[in-house]
Design a protein that fits this description.
about 45% strand; about 290 residues; about 15% helix; alpha+beta; 4-stranded antiparallel β-sheet; 10-stranded mixed β-sheet
């Protein structure tokens, strides 16, 4: 006869088996994303009514096209929702996709943000590394790589992601705009694409809370299944801008910074890249 403790043990074992199986699937999903470029947060809808559920996916891919990743706690150092002065805890559980699925009794801007843990990518072809450096505007790394006496292939790069997404809830407030969240690598919009997209786009790139000068910022816009990419560059104060009215569509800003990996890393990485992204959208009715 099965006792209460035996039944509890059986239930626990069954749960652990399911959790382990789900974890393997999640690990596979994240591992399969290492060769993709951008990493971003994408809500189903960027403007919602107060009290309505906000559903947002974490995606990895290229040119604003990519697969969504389910929630895997070990993949994130932090995942926060900013609505007002204090962060709101994420209500999701392991395996949830979309990762964000909760309502807010809030009127104004909601900022979603996440910081990933480190991942590792190994380069077995020299051209793949060089193509990546060229695409992201960090060609200086190629010469630094040679000066360090590193091999052209057969080496590893660690990388970490810092993503934000701006969502307008309710009627919004023209004074409620993006702000600095203290991410190590962070894109901050200084213009308001929701209240006044006609004024163009302006922002600042920060590295360890300081302006990052002379750095490429890629701007993607997706509309009607077409994706356009423009290259912007920060000035001496880390600021960038795009003149002219913003056209309707989903926007992704992306920047990459590279540093020498710490010598005491146990994974053998010789470089570490840091990725900052921000998403927002422009509705045709707001123009």
């Amino acid at each position: 006869m099965m006792t209460r403790s035996t039944r509890q043990l059986s239930v626990a074992k069954s749960w652990l088996k399911r959790w382990y199986a789900a974890s393997l699937v999640l690990i596979g999903a994240y591992a399969g994303a290492v060769t993709a470029h951008e990493f971003w947060i994408e809500p189903e809808v960027f403007e919602i009514a107060s009290g309505s559920p906000l559903r947002a996916y974490v995606r990895v891919g290229q040119n604003l096209k990519g697969d969504s990743l389910p929630l895997f706690r070990q993949a994130f150092e932090r995942f926060e929702i900013h609505a007002g002065e204090h962060p709101i805890p994420l209500a999701s559980r392991i395996g949830d996709d979309p990762i964000v699925n909760q309502a807010f009794e809030h009127d104004g801007l909601v900022i979603l943000s996440c910081v990933s843990t480190d991942s590792l990518l190994r380069y077995e072809e020299a051209q793949k590394f060089l193509s990546f450096l060229d695409y992201e505007g960090i060609q200086w790394v190629a010469e630094a790589h040679k000066r360090r006496g590193l091999p052209p292939f057969g080496f590893s790069e660690a990388y970490q992601r810092f993503a934000k997404s701006l969502v307008r809830v309710g009627s919004g407030d023209a004074g409620d705009v993006d702000r600095v969240l203290g991410l190590r690598f962070e894109l901050v919009l200084t213009s308001d694409p929701y209240s006044d997209p006609g004024r163009g786009l302006a922002g600042q790139l920060l590295w360890q809370a300081k302006p990052m000068a002379d750095t490429q910022v890629s701007l993607f816009r997706r509309a009607a299944d077409r994706v356009e990419r423009q290259l912007l560059r920060t000035d001496a104060n880390g600021r960038f801008s795009l003149e002219g009215a913003l056209l309707p569509g989903v926007y992704l800003l992306n920047a990459v910074h590279m540093e020498e990996a710490a010598a005491d890393r146990d994974d053998g990485a010789v470089w570490k890249s840091f990725w900052a992204s921000t998403t927002f959208a422009v509705d045709a009715s707001n123009r």
